[in-house]
Amino acid sequence: MKVTEHLEQAKDTLFTFEILPPLKGQTITSIYDAIDPLMEFNPPFIDVTYHREEYVFKQEASGLHRKRSIRKRPGTVSICAAIMNKYGVDAIPHIICGGFTKEETEYALIDLNFLGINNVLALRGDPVSSEKQFIAEEFGHQDSTSLINQITKMNDGLYLEEDLQNVAKADFCIGVAGYPEKHFESPNMMNDIKYLKQKVDAGADYVVTQMFFNNQKYFDYVDLCRANGINVPIIPGIKPLTTKSQISALPRYFFIDIPEELSEAVDACKDNKAAKQVGIEWGIQQCRELKEAGVPCIHFFTMSRAAATYNIIKEIA
Predict the structure, then answer these.
(1) CATH number of residue 108's parent domain
(2) Spatial separation of the C-alpha atoms in residues 171 and 157, rounded to whole Å
(3) pLDDT digits (tens, 9 = 90+) for 69-98
(4) Number of structural domains, the chain?
(5) Residue 251, in any domain of the structure
(6) Which of 79, 137, 300, 312 is the most exposed, fewest CB within 10 Å of its CB?
(7) Is 152 helix (H, G, I), strand (E, B) or coil?
(8) pTM of this prediction?
């Protein structure tokens, strides 16, 4: 079932989750361990992130260093198939621009279509660590709007090879990212809204927001989107805070603000156990307010750890 259909049919706020593929060499058991406790809350879909290549330099016998491309967390598509098979819920792979040509993207979408996966989250993705800014692959997509256009064309039965005969149309429901505190590359919020509108006009069916810790920023963002003709569902993304270091790490990596009240409470904690409890209590407060506001779904960035998310939902479900 498509994400939009789940949202339309929901009689109460849905709870959904995002997980990370395990590190290369590990088993899928860690994924099941992260999902099993959360199945109590009947998630209609689960997102699986995609992690692009990284570059490392390996020293050879000659003493020279050779640049190698590696993927530390492979397996997004196969994990989606495993989740659907084991739990009977929809799995949503992240599809990114970075590291792919348009042809490779088409092959990936064909594989998803064959597997019966008809939801995707279309993202530009981050630059690799050695790049100061995002650089598209040759013959690849420069931004998520271009990627969405390709997916939409497949939904219309248009492939890269224009002379294909008797082609079947794909039927992907397309999600995109939204930023209540704006994308860090946008010079201002209105510029960010303009690009989100372009993604929706290109065929995006729903939006999942970046994490936020101040609900008013989400409510203001939704109002701004609606005022600018963005009328698709906007799902709030919630990240339970679990360690003291995240107070400084999350703003640095995700370009978000931490409310003063929350940061002071975490700073006063003696250890991570106490900080995690503060994060859970803050998450309960956030989600209770969002639920009372009538959001159709709350999407949790679990980082493949179930405990904090479980404790939050248990209090509000």
Answers:
(1) 3.20.20.220
(2) 9
(3) 566 677 899 999 999 999 999 999 999 998
(4) 1
(5) no
(6) 137
(7) helix
(8) 0.92
